[in-house]
Specification:
Radius of gyration: 22 Å
Oligomer: single chain
Mean pLDDT: 88
Distance between the termini: 30 Å
Number of helices: 11
Structural class: alpha/beta
Strand content: 15-25%
Length: about 400
Amino acid sequence: MRRSFIALATAALLVGACSEPPKPSTRTAQAVTVTPKAGSPLTASGKARIALLLPLSGRAAPIGQAMQQAAEMALFDTGSKDIALSAYDSGESADTAIEAYRKARLDGAALVLGPLYGTSASALVPLVNQGGMNVVAFSNDEQVAQRGVWIMGIAAPPQVRRVVDHAFEAGIRRFATFAPQTPYGQQMSSTLETYVTRRGGTVVGREFFDPNGADIPAQARLLAASARTEGESSKVAVLVPVAPPLLSTALASLATNGLDGRAIQLIGTGVWDFPGVGAETMLRGAWYAAPDPAKRADFERRFVSTYGRPPHRLATLAYDGVGLAGQLARLKPGGDFSAEAIANPNGWSGVDGIFRFLPDGRSERALAVIEIQGDRGVVVSPAPSTFAGQPTN
């Protein structure tokens, strides 16, 4: 089964379920003066029905359960007076996600948050086009995105564009890619080449290696030769969108061929956004784009306080999704979950920073640039605090 490009989920199944629920909210429910009906998008107390589609069974169940816990935390933090959340098991297959979506539709859901996988989100498109509820999926696969099915996951192409922008600001105009021969690696290389060319820079080399790692040293030699043919008077930024465990081998092979952090500027994507990234000493001074970790750290502390264990990295998506639903529910009596409301160009605020949905179903996020210093990442270019004046890509 093809999974979506969940670039930030490089550590699999880190968190299991925890039995205790979050502490109840002390807020008083406020009734909306709309008469509920059978299958109505409103409950008897006037709350908007929100469906949460997550893999609560199968191999990814620990991820789904952690995301459900984060959603419940958000419900009590921000939206308990405006929305009623119901979880549905989307499993691991598109068929299971379709069944969950249909059940949520019969129950009267006004909006669907999830599913997690791109293949499952894509399978819901015909149902949405037949007049079903809009979907805000947790996938980050931009190939899935379209009007009515928005992706909320932190897509990789914007990460590349953000770190390339930072490199340009630092005076770098020459770029190269060293990536695995996978759909993800090819997408990152293509994104870099297109964007660098648009900005007036030069791509001096691109090399793909076997994802099993057998030919990494040989491909590193080829990349070094390509970079040198362009002259050595200006620095080259080399995109290495590689996650552990291959990351160490890729970096060592580049360094052996003279492409270390002193000779080049290493740049990366969210696959470097993992605890202890500074342990990769060859990454010292490297840049990558990701949400500001400070806001996420506060969420993680509160999650641990509530559930007694750290959240999965993807849990923030569910938390922010519920926050989004709460804000949409407050736009007018009964809520406004239309495409126009979801794709508000001013965007929305969440644990992972501000974000907005584009009319074509993609999402855009305000990302920080993080430099790896010592044993940790330090923000060297803060994430924008507003989308005002920024055109949609």
